[in-house]
């Protein structure tokens, strides 16, 4: 996963329980300005992507997990939650689009 838009597209078409890998590495280190091996542009995109994943989890759209792959290497997963079905939840269905619009 490399961009917020790709994450949004995957989330929009994913079934509940689908796990989306949004980063492989060490997220805290890779987001840190001094410790990262990423370019400033890559770090900025990762920060935006990780922040978006966090906001989706807080809004109830997904759960965030990490799976150890190896020494100092993890897969960071966004697991899609069941979507609300009631009519009053229509605003919640628009939440990813609204969050995407606020990032623009």
Structure, described:
The chain has helices at 4-13, 27-31, 40-58, 90-93, 95-103; strands at residues 19-25, 62-70, 73-80. It has 104 residues and is of the alpha+beta class. It has one domain. It has a 3-stranded antiparallel sheet with strand order 1-3-2. A hairpin with a 2-residue loop joins β2 and β3. It starts with a helix and ends with a helix.
Count of separate structural domains: 1
Query: Spatial order of the strands in the main sheet?
Result: 1-3-2
Beta-strand proportion: 15-25%
Q: Low-confidence spans: pLDDT under 50, at least 5 residues?
A: none
Mean pLDDT: 85
Number of strands: 3
The N- to C-terminal Cα distance equals: 19 Å
Identify the overall geometry: globular
Count of separate DSSP helical elements: 5
What is the helix fraction of residues, given as a range?
40-55%
Biggest pleated sheet: 3 strands, antiparallel
Oligomer: single chain
Helix- and strand-based class?
Answer: alpha+beta
Radius of gyration: 14 Å
Write down the secondary-structure element order: HEHHEEHH
Annotation keywords:
104 residues; 45% helix; globular
Q: What topology does this entry show?
A:
Blueprint: H1 4-13, E1 19-25, H2 27-31, H3 40-58, E2 62-70, E3 73-80, H4 90-93, H5 95-103
Antiparallel strand pairs: 1-3, 2-3
Short description:
With 104 residues, the protein is α+β, with helices and mostly antiparallel strands.
């Amino acid at each position: 996963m490399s961009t917020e838009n790709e994450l949004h597209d995957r989330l929009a078409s994913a079934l509940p329980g689908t796990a989306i890998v949004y980063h492989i590495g060490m997220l805290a280190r890779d987001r840190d300005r001094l410790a990262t091996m990423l370019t400033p542009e890559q770090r900025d995109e990762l920060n935006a992507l990780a922040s978006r994943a966090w906001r989706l989890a807080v809004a109830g759209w997904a759960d965030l997990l990490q799976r150890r792959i190896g020494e100092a290497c993890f897969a960071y997963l966004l697991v899609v939650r069941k979507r609300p079905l009631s009519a009053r939840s229509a605003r919640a269905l628009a939440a990813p689009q609204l969050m995407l619009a606020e990032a623009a």
